[in-house]
Design brief:
This protein has about 500 residues and is mostly helical. Helix content is about 65%, strand content about 5%. It contains ten helices and five strands, in the order ααααααααααβββββ. Strands 4-3-2-1-5 form a five-stranded antiparallel sheet. Strand 2 and strand 3 form a beta hairpin. Helix 2 runs antiparallel to helix 4, helix 2 runs parallel beside helix 5 and helix 4 packs antiparallel against helix 5.
């Protein structure tokens, strides 16, 4: 069964049906386009959500050392990747379905327009042929009627006794001419009829069936292509399902990686002070040796127990370079971390120095490759940096050694606060309890003049300018560094070779 055979007379229905098919393709394209917009907006919102809850800043980075914090970060990262897959779905649907089907639909519209135009043209040609047939038929009928009338008139004149021979001959000639003309019209009509029947047979049995069959093929191709588009709608998402599943598995894995015990241990390691718990408070019997109330009693008020560092609510102490403001355990951790950082930077600078020396050697052997003297400023600067880093390394290692060695003394002091109270009672100075509120004032050990300008960019150093007078607070201990005080009040370490000692 095909359109050309069974629907040869259903032009209007074929036209509407093919138009409806094209409208369906256009409708599906719009549907997929709106789906892509939903996917894009969904992905955008997921990315925004991921950024909103992502950890930022030093405090958050510190928290991310805990497994439950780190797992949330992994979940947000996986969600961000998941959003990327939704964007990929939208992009593939737009290019693979919307764009391709739009181009295909434009071609189909042109093809449909051509077939309909051919059908109308064939119909018009058949109608013109029919009009010609009707025209020759009418002419034949008219001429035949005139011929019969002329023949009858000639017979009437011939039978008229009053008619002359000339009149009879004239009437006969006129009837003969009319009959001849009628015969010609009859032949024209017969030829036109034969032509029309042939054209009509071609129209209904060949031309129109071919056009309708082409339109049927066009419509079936449209349906097949639309079916592929329907399948693409699912296949595009199926292709990224493995990655989406991987993202979801990553979220599950992040949840399973949480170790509550390990988080507790890490929290302990981060914040334990290293102090020992305070000892028992002894009973102080004031009933012994109580005298009558005198003015002297007001001079010796009962001593209160010294505040313990872990529970004090005083303001946060100023951060010291040697981290002495921190509890023992935390101080050791900070010093060790600082030593590790300096060691890495020192190794990096040493590698840079080695590379410069090798390059200098190459330039000396092959002057055409470069000028060895051009590397001197970099080599000098690198050597200065190595000296500075080594000095800092020795300094922090000394502090770490002191922190490790002085731990027992610190614990003993915190564990025996009662002895501090007793010692205070034996002191004749009633203000000794306030002594710890004041810092010892360091005594300068000399003066010096800056020979060169030095930029103190690293922690613990101070910048100086050439010719500046400086106060020496700590002499060079053999590491190439000394601690100085500027007139502005800034204090820090500088290279010992950068200054000249005052006489």
């Amino acid at each position: 069964m095909d359109w050309g055979t069974d629907l040869w007379d259903q032009y209007d229905h074929i036209e509407k049906h093919t138009q409806s098919g094209h409208d369906l393709v256009d409708r599906y394209i719009k549907f997929v386009r709106e789906r892509t917009e939903i996917e894009q907006n969904y992905a955008k919102q997921l990315r925004s959500l991921s950024r909103k809850y992502a950890k930022r800043g030093s405090k958050e980075e510190q928290d991310c050392k805990f497994s439950n914090h780190a797992s949330l970060q992994e979940i947000l990262n996986e969600l961000n990747d998941y959003a990327g897959q939704r964007e990929l779905i939208a992009e593939n649907m737009m290019t693979g379905i919307c764009v391709e089907l739009t181009k295909y639909l434009q071609d189909l519209k042109l093809e449909r327009k051509t077939h309909l135009s051919d059908a109308k043209k064939a119909q018009q040609n058949l109608e013109i042929s029919l009009k010609n047939l009707e025209s020759t038929k009418k002419r034949f009928a008219k001429e035949w009627a005139e011929a019969e009338k002329a023949t009858q008139q000639a017979e009437k004149i011939e039978n008229d006794l009053n008619a002359t021979r000339l009149d009879v001959e004239k009437a006969k000639q006129h009837a003969h001419a009319r009959t001849h003309t009628a015969e010609e019209c009859r032949n024209d009509y017969a030829a036109q009829l034969q032509k029309y029947n042939k054209e009509q047979n071609f129209f209904y049995y060949s031309e129109i069936p071919q056009i309708y069959n082409k339109m049927q093929d066009m419509d079936e191709r449209r349906i097949r292509r639309l079916a592929e588009g329907y399948c693409q709608f699912a296949d595009i998402e199926k292709k990224v399902l493995p990655i989406i599943t991987k993202c979801l598995d990553g979220i599950s894995t992040a949840g399973k990686k949480i170790n509550e015990k390990q988080d507790s241990i890490l929290f302990i390691e981060q914040h334990k002070s290293g102090f020992e718990r305070p000892g028992d408070v002894e009973f102080e019997d004031y009933t012994q040796g109580i005298k009558s109330a005198t003015s002297d009693s007001s001079l010796n008020p009962p001593k209160t127990r010294a505040k313990l560092w872990p529970f004090s609510k005083k303001t946060k102490p100023h951060a010291a370079e040697d981290f002495s403001h921190l509890p023992p355990e935390q101080r050791k951790k900070k010093l060790q971390a600082k030593i590790d950082d300096i060691t890495k930077e020192l190794q990096k600078t040493q590698d840079q120095s080695d590379a410069l020396e090798k390059m200098k050697g190459v330039y000396e052997k092959s002057p055409q490759m470069g000028d060895p003297s051009s590397l001197e400023p970099q080599i000098s600067e690198t050597a200065q940096n190595i000296g500075r880093l080594r000095g800092e390394l020795v300094k922090y290692e000394t502090w770490l050694s002191e922190a490790v060695g002085g731990e027992e003394t610190s614990n003993a002091i915190n564990n025996n606060t009662k002895h501090c109270v007793v010692a205070a009672e034996q002191s004749p100075n009633i203000y000794t309890e306030f002594d710890d509120e004041f810092d010892d004032v360091e005594t300068p050990v000399g003066q010096c003049t800056a020979l060169y300008t030095f930029q103190g960019n690293s922690e613990g150093t101070v910048s100086i300018t050439e010719g500046e007078m400086l106060t020496i607070m700590e002499e060079d201990k053999g590491d190439g560094w000394m601690r100085v005080l500027r007139a502005s009040g800034e204090e820090g370490y500088i290279p010992s070779s950068y200054v000249k000692l005052a006489p």
